[in-house]
Amino acid sequence: MTNRVKRSRSFASDNNAGVHPKIMEAIAAANDGHVIAYGDDPYTARALKLFRLGKDVEVFFVFGGTGANVLGLKAATASHHAIICAQTAHINVDECGAPEKFTGCKLLPITTADGKIKAEQIKPLLHEVGFEHHVQPRVISVSQATEMGTVYTPRELQTLAKFAHERNMLLHVDGARIANAAAGLNVKLKETTRDAGVDILSFGGAKNGMMYGEAVVFFDKTLAKDFKYTRKQGTHLPSKMRFISAQFEALLANDLWRQNAQHANQMAQRLAIELGKIPQITFTQKVEANGVFAIVPKKYVPLLQKSYFFYVWNEEISEVRFMTSFDTTEADIADFVGLVKKIVK
Amino acid sequence: MTNRVKRSRSFASDNNAGVHPKIMEAIAAANDGHVIAYGDDPYTARALKLFRLGKDVEVFFVFGGTGANVLGLKAATASHHAIICAQTAHINVDECGAPEKFTGCKLLPITTADGKIKAEQIKPLLHEVGFEHHVQPRVISVSQATEMGTVYTPRELQTLAKFAHERNMLLHVDGARIANAAAGLNVKLKETTRDAGVDILSFGGAKNGMMYGEAVVFFDKTLAKDFKYTRKQGTHLPSKMRFISAQFEALLANDLWRQNAQHANQMAQRLAIELGKIPQITFTQKVEANGVFAIVPKKYVPLLQKSYFFYVWNEEISEVRFMTSFDTTEADIADFVGLVKKIVK
Amino acid sequence: MTNRVKRSRSFASDNNAGVHPKIMEAIAAANDGHVIAYGDDPYTARALKLFRLGKDVEVFFVFGGTGANVLGLKAATASHHAIICAQTAHINVDECGAPEKFTGCKLLPITTADGKIKAEQIKPLLHEVGFEHHVQPRVISVSQATEMGTVYTPRELQTLAKFAHERNMLLHVDGARIANAAAGLNVKLKETTRDAGVDILSFGGAKNGMMYGEAVVFFDKTLAKDFKYTRKQGTHLPSKMRFISAQFEALLANDLWRQNAQHANQMAQRLAIELGKIPQITFTQKVEANGVFAIVPKKYVPLLQKSYFFYVWNEEISEVRFMTSFDTTEADIADFVGLVKKIVK
Amino acid sequence: MTNRVKRSRSFASDNNAGVHPKIMEAIAAANDGHVIAYGDDPYTARALKLFRLGKDVEVFFVFGGTGANVLGLKAATASHHAIICAQTAHINVDECGAPEKFTGCKLLPITTADGKIKAEQIKPLLHEVGFEHHVQPRVISVSQATEMGTVYTPRELQTLAKFAHERNMLLHVDGARIANAAAGLNVKLKETTRDAGVDILSFGGAKNGMMYGEAVVFFDKTLAKDFKYTRKQGTHLPSKMRFISAQFEALLANDLWRQNAQHANQMAQRLAIELGKIPQITFTQKVEANGVFAIVPKKYVPLLQKSYFFYVWNEEISEVRFMTSFDTTEADIADFVGLVKKIVK
Known about the structure:
4 copies of one chain form a homotetramer.
Chain A: H1 21-30, H2 42-50, E1 58-62, H3 65-76, E2 81-86, H4 90-93, H5 98-103, E3 106-110, H6 119-122, E4 136-143, H7 154-166, E5 170-175, H8 178-185, E6 200-204, E7 214-218, H9 221-224, H10 227-233, H11 242-252, H12 256-276, E8 282-283, E9 291-295, H13 301-305, E10 311-314, E11 319-323, H14 330-344
Parallel strand pairs in A: 2-3, 2-4, 4-5, 5-6
Antiparallel strand pairs in A: 1-7, 6-7, 8-9, 9-11, 10-11
Helix pairs in contact in A: 1-11, 2-11, 8-12, 12-14
């Protein structure tokens, strides 16, 4: 990576951002004396209570997002099961095979135009249910928001959940950007999770202003029965848990999660609007969360990357991805769009 | 856990402590703008350089200690290998089977009096080398300091390393308390690791004043060849890596690691000396790091635990463990010892 | 499965056939007194010598084909690797996820028209080589003959092998029907394996007249270094090994393997020629080994299955699969074709 | 292994013997035309019916004994569980770590004098039940007969089963020599399995006159629910299943299993009686099945091994193991004992 990042904020990824000041404050405030390690502390007790996503919800904190996904999926599967997901899913392409390694399951990826899978596409994967020669589909895993910046509506999730439950399958959500999705849909977290029929959720913190820490949320207690062992064996039981809990407390209290996500989403909208005014740039995906997918003519890309770091998503068609975050400013966008305009001229 | 922890600091565990102020400052200072995620940032570059443990050393940061152990062992083994360790080793009893799950290896535990294994004890485990029906010993894993508060001398480590290397085996060190060991021995980190023939080290941060983060240190580059994949697949590649790196930078610069460890060790010494004046209390282990193992008559234990949380290590003989940490004060010890004296009267 | 199989031989699968008489004789002859278990016996020594596939070849017998594939792949991979194969590959669809479970690897399937993958199709899967977020392609696995009844020419294999080796990858062959392939190509076994650049081969016995037993053949000794442990840990070290060895001895001596395969192939050719005279029947694949893939109008299928058991391959287009075996007779074909003619009238 | 085996039958192992003639006949008789592969055949249907071990029993055939053990244990466990067994258990020392690799579980071995574990010895292993840092004991696995030639009485098994069931654990039996145990106890198979509270049994064939093939027997149907997938993914679904089934049919019909086992046991008794007359030889275990464990002065061992192959069990004390089998003759014993007498003179 030889790109020079001249500006203090880039559009590379929402995890290139730092930590929201209020979360940093909460961390500092939690640094007070001794508490019992591994989660038996008042910070954790308070944070868990704030996950008001419905009755009988069980929540477990872990270090990071890949761990959250892998362990949540492990709780739902035996090794002869299959996990259905979009071809573009983080669990399929960005976790170095961690789901297969840790669960033993096969992933069955579905090609999509926008990162969203539809029940109709799943049906052909169910032809071999009951035959021992074949892996048995057990989980439908979707990303909300998707890796393509799109968002499932609650109704779309409900349809998938119903499809799953009617076939003894479960609906798993990789919610690394669940906050951006809920903010984009302008619904409560509960509406896009519990009420939509989701069974297991990875609730992301790091992409929404936290330093580290994710939550695995079970909407069916029986799935969580042995999860404390799965988490520990899965190497994701933090000793100084309070510092994750304090972050979640800050994020969930007073809807900081929503403010952060909303801001990032609005910046993405603004970026898309401004870039849309430049005729050389076209868009490949709807902007429904905090990502903008655009085709930028190949010759301009390295010139832009001299000042702003961002990823080329699809080299063949020169599709690039711009991500905004809780700390993206209007000035950042003005500056960047100004730069684009200058370069394309 | 119904114990009331009345005091702000207990002797339960060094990971019940919080974060050292200088480390907290370093975290706050790192929260400045955007940097590339996953370790391609200047904080990480600087922190890695501070691991001055010899030429050709490769260092990787991970979230936590169980992850560090499991992934370091994975780098050294194939699934038909065996890992030799003390019966009391953290990898054997406190990681919920994570080493077996992730490496596929069998652990071959050795019973010890003081948590330290000797080469002589390993020999009988090597009878079946070369026979396909049996797992093949590949790694000797020791804890430094041990879970019993004892410390291997550099010479003891050298003997084990030589024994291992002569038999195509490797020496792995679970260094959750490597700082306490080096401080206790009054040697440089290098003397108790690289110079002692160690091949792979889990370098612990959390028990020595960090918030989270451990390092897997390879003293043989070939063992590290694929470790970046092992770490990612092992769910231990932190996205906002800079916040671990900044902590390590603070810990390793100006020998903060040694000051913290030395202080904790001294507090353990003082605690042992003071408790040693109470005839009802006897000791089961030498105090060589920051742990004190003592037999406290059963009837006193719950009374003490009303004010100070600590663990009973061996219920049969009423052996308890007191751990000190970087923030233990002389006043804490005076208060606690005073309480013991009051109770045993 | 409620189909009545009226005829003593069906076209369902080559593993529905029994054991060739000469192999049965060899088994009986091996039942003579005691020999050392697990392969340290003269039958095994002789059988291994008959695998004259080149210098430095290492051969290991196992119980069955899925075991052979999975363990051969394990020998070539670490868990962060990926295995590239055709979508239709047995390892991808017919082994209930055994490769993922045992190796931890991800399979990267390629859609093909005829079960054969081409180097060009592999290139897009190599975009992420060197990036830790992504599994690293390490093995190209092909089936020879393919599950679609087609066969790679030696030149096609050479091209794949060269492509693989230039990229630090290996070529694995699932040779459940390697005999049919070599017979169909009219080449020596060596020409379609060693000389074609194959690194690891599952050499199938059961589909060519053996009762049970497969061989994992390594053309690179270094890959076989730890395989005796992998086989034992993989639960595939037969105690009474001599009875597998005696079968391989009978199969490989005097080219029984080729006679059996050639006969099965000829029967497939004859079946295709005869069915080709019936205008209602069309073919979806070339007949290059012992399988015939044909579209049979849906209404005829159940009528035919009353007398002959065979599998519907693709329900949507009413594609069926007919497999011939070493014991298929011209009379079987005449009888079956007569039945088809009667029914379609 | 350079030992010369001069005699046609040795005392090395019951799996050095060949196949019982009646079983060989049954194999030959099953070689008749085509049947559906993978167990959907009349031979398998008949063989399964012969496992008359009680209501609701589920039986699955696999290739071999290590596979039977590993897959049976997999059906009973999640990866955070522990399996308690004797230190000498085949699953602990003779399967190259296959249980750990395939189940992910830790094995907790218990030191015994005679290969038999007692409930009292298990209690200390249960101290950490419910704590997430520690593996959770789930299965007690015993070998019947044990690897030391001893046998659990039905009452001893009942005690272990009761102990297990009261603690939400299961009793698994490695019955590689279950026939020898039942014959030695002079009880029905059912009495030493179902009636004794066993939950899962590996029913051994190869050590009792079969060529290959073992059965995994579930006495609780719910444990077997997904086992067909576990078997296939575990690479132990034989394609030409009928040849295993025909062997089991021959073994179980007319109590051939008992005749074979009884004969082997009687030969062991006779061997022990005759060797017992030689003062230089002493015994380390009771002879309750088909194994004789004796101390033979070191200098005699190589002299004996020139003519008869057998294993030294414990080199330190010059303990050797003699195994008898279904085909051991009185003449073999007379010849061997004569040799011993000659040598010790």
